[in-house]
Specification:
502 residues; mainly beta; Immunoglobulin-like; seven-stranded mixed β-sheet; six-stranded mixed β-sheet; binds copper (II) ion
Length: 502
């Protein structure tokens, strides 16, 4: 990632013309020292309670399938105290409602494009959906129309749904079009891990606001979108009241361009239990971990070790190039407020993950991610929906080497459809916490990673791209085609129908 100097960061802000009328709960950073410029209004940290997005109920269910409905619409909500902010949200909230599903049941989600005034495409990130339900970038649903998406729920994992419209993914996700989608299975529910209110999704994002509360979307010339306010589940630097128990957190980086290096303020360990595609084979303790955009990690924090009255801050140690703003070094705070028994435990073995031996790979492909002549390119090329860059046959095991020769940028690379295992990073073993099934691979500055995966279970065209969605939009994305003759990734136009009047 390119370093942003403080001066450049301040330039992203807006003129502080209305500063005399500020709500008293907001402070404008550097207001006194830098005449005429300011960052976002800065709310008091840890003042608001962590919101938990509502779980969406199906509109109906039958023996095999649950049917859901979500409407993408503009809404004005309060994010910063005393100000209102226009967002584009699924059902008018950001993050959108959580879908909770069981392995093996099917979902049909009717995504209605109502008032966002832009074409949309919805990707359920982490699901092996058929090509026409995978949120292909050109498979657009126009305002006033809806599309029914079919999701097979074949993996127990923390997934997320978000917009994937060609050239506008970053803006649409930034404006709020993202939400959590959980799939659980009987096996996992049978483990003694923390459950119910002790199983908490944390969707982390950074945003920038004007002094009137408007979201600022500025990619600095199609490079990156950074914010100076950290939101968790939509609330700025929230506080969560916890008991003396173990909690399971499902952490998702839903930011556009910012990665994090998370740690606890008391120096204690996280107990990592899951990666993008579900539980790891065994828990592993780490002091901190790197979290690229779209990556998910599941972890346990054991608050039974702390006396009531303790406060533990979830910190962002950042990366060398990631120290652009004050305040982004903190994410949220946990306040231990009550003593309670804890019946949960962490099994030494979580699940069996079938290894994919390197010897089973039938070929290796190489993908170079770089900036060239002002464009984000893969092997020198920008996105072209007519071009296919890899054609594994159904069931083939392939090794992909993803590499980044630049010291100035990092690229979290997302491969749709399949889950892979990282073989190595710069020839060395992956970090202990990333040794699970994953669909996003953090390719850091001057890094090369090798990932192995089996292509299937579907045939057809699927995208692969950088999950800095600004890079993805302009145009660090390509596609592979599994087997031959799979369905088109484009919807049958007859199946995109006018939206019901609302
Ligand atoms: Cu990138």
């Amino acid at each position: 990632m390119k370093k942003i100097t403080r001066r450049e960061a301040l330039k992203l802000g807006t003129l502080a013309g209305g500063s005399l009328l500020l709500p008293t709960t907001l402070l404008y950073r550097n207001q006194a020292s830098i005449a005429g410029t300011a960052g976002s209004p800065q709310p008091t940290r840890f003042a608001v309670k962590l919101p938990i997005p509502p779980v969406l109920n199906p509109v109906r269910s039958d023996a095999t399938t649950d049917y859901y409905e979500m409407t993408m619409k503009k809404a004005r909500i309060s994010i910063l105290p005393g100000l209102t902010t226009e967002i584009w949200g699924y059902n008018g909230i950001a993050p959108g409602p959580t879908i909770k599903q069981r392995l093996g049941r099917k979902s049909v989600v009717r995504f209605i494009n109502n008032s966002v005034n832009t074409p949309t495409s919805v990707h359920l990130h982490g699901m092996a959906s058929l090509p026409q339900y995978d949120g292909y970038a050109e498979d657009l649903t126009l305002p006033g129309y809806y599309k029914d998406y079919f999701f097979p729920n074949t993996r127990a994992a923390t997934l997320w749904y978000h917009d994937h419209a060609i050239h506008n993914t970053a803006r649409n996700v930034y404006m709020g079009l993202a939400g959590t989608y959980l799939v659980q299975d009987e096996f996992e529910l049978g483990l003694p891990l923390p459950k119910g209110q002790y199983d908490v999704p944390l969707l982390i994002q950074d945003k920038q606001f004007t002094n009137t509360g408007k979201l600022v979307f500025d990619t600095q010339g199609e490079k990156s979108q950074y914010g100076d306010v950290i939101l968790v589940n939509g609330a700025p630097w929230p506080r969560m009241e916890v008991g003396t128990s173990k909690y399971r957190f499902r952490i998702l980086n839903g930011s556009i361009s910012r990665s994090y290096k998370l740690a606890l303020s008391n120096g204690d360990d996280f107990i990592m239990i899951g990666t993008d595609a579900g539980l790891m084979s065994a828990p592993v303790n780490v002091k901190n971990f790197r979290l690229g955009m779209a990556e998910r990690y599941e972890l346990i924090i054991d608050f039974s070790k702390y006396p009531v009255g303790s406060q533990v801050v979830l910190q962002n140690l950042g990366l060398p190039n990631n120290d652009d703003y004050d305040g982004t070094d903190q994410i949220m705070r946990f306040d231990v407020v009550r003593s309670e028994p804890d019946n949960s435990s962490i099994p030494a073995t979580l699940r069996t993950i079938q290894p994919i031996p390197e010897s089973s790979a039938v070929r290796t492909r190489e993908f170079r991610y770089e900036r060239s002549n002002g464009l984000w390119v893969i092997n020198g090329k920008v996105w072209d929906d007519k071009r296919v860059d890899a054609n594994p046959q159904l069931g083939d095991v392939e090794i992909w080497r993803l590499y980044n020769n630049s010291g100035g940028w990092f690229h979290p690379i997302h491969i749709h459809l399949i889950d892979c295992i990282m073989l190595d990073r710069n020839g060395k073993p992956p970090f202990p916490y990333e040794r699970g099934l994953k669909d996003v691979f953090y390719v850091g500055e001057n890094e090369s990673v090798r990932v192995i995966g089996r292509y299937g279970p579907n045939t057809g065209k699927y995208m692969s791209h950088c999950h800095n969605t600004v890079h993805e939009d302009h145009d660090m994305m390509n596609q592979f085609e599994v087997g031959q003759g799979g369905p088109s990734p484009l919807s049958d136009p007859a199946k995109i129908l006018p939206a019901p009047s609302l």
